[in-house]
Amino acid sequence: SGNWEDLVKFLQAARKKARESYVETELIFALAKTNRLAELEEFIHGPNNAHIQQVGDGCYDEKMYEAAKLLYNNVSTFGRLASTLVHLGEYQAAVDGARKANSTRTWKEVCFACVDGKEFRLAQMCGLHIVVHADELEELINYYQDRGYFEELITMLEAALGLERAHMGMFTELAILYSKFKPQKMRKHLE
């Protein structure tokens, strides 16, 4: 860490001489490595020529999630921000990031993380964006079933039937789940 502190001082001095993109990019990464997040935040909110997305990816890869969160938020990279927030256990914020990213891959990642964290209300919010894609339904169902969360899965599919983009696959899968776990609901569902 001492070397990174020295590098921060050197890069700050170099930046005074020339405001080069590569100097500013390395300075941001060095600030992240030394956990100087307040300085990092101040720097990225000011005028700079740094490659913030690139540094965010580097921080993410090195599991420096707090720094990555600041950087992705700054450049509005919502998919990576949602992924970062999942690693920080900030599930509600991750759902908000997934909503802004609005990609199936991000919805799935956040949904599965919420299931693993037993945040089923948030998982359902994500899941409703996934079940409308027939080709994604099986993976989602298997994820819940493999972990024994049948009740939560049934609740989500019941909620999904009211969606504008509901499809036959959802009705079929719910019927299968009823037949296995709630036979008393089967008849009403089929009528």
From TrEMBL:
Pfam families: Clathrin (PF00637)
Single GO molecular function: clathrin light chain binding
Gene3D superfamilies (UniProt xref): Tetratricopeptide repeat domain (1.25.40.10)
InterPro entries to which the protein is assigned, alphabetical: ARM-type_fold, CHCR, Clathrin_H-chain/VPS_repeat, TPR-like_helical_dom_sf
CHCR repeat segments: 1-123, 128-191
SUPFAM superfamilies: ARM repeat
Gene Ontology terms: cellular component: clathrin complex; clathrin-coated endocytic vesicle; extracellular exosome; spindle
Domain of life per record: Eukaryota
One record GO biological process: mitotic cell cycle
PANTHER family membership: CLATHRIN HEAVY CHAIN 1 (PTHR10292:SF7), CLATHRIN HEAVY CHAIN RELATED (PTHR10292)
Protein's name according to its UniProt entry: Chromosome undetermined SCAF11033, whole genome shotgun sequence
Lineage, broadest ranks: Eukaryota, Metazoa, Chordata, Craniata, Vertebrata
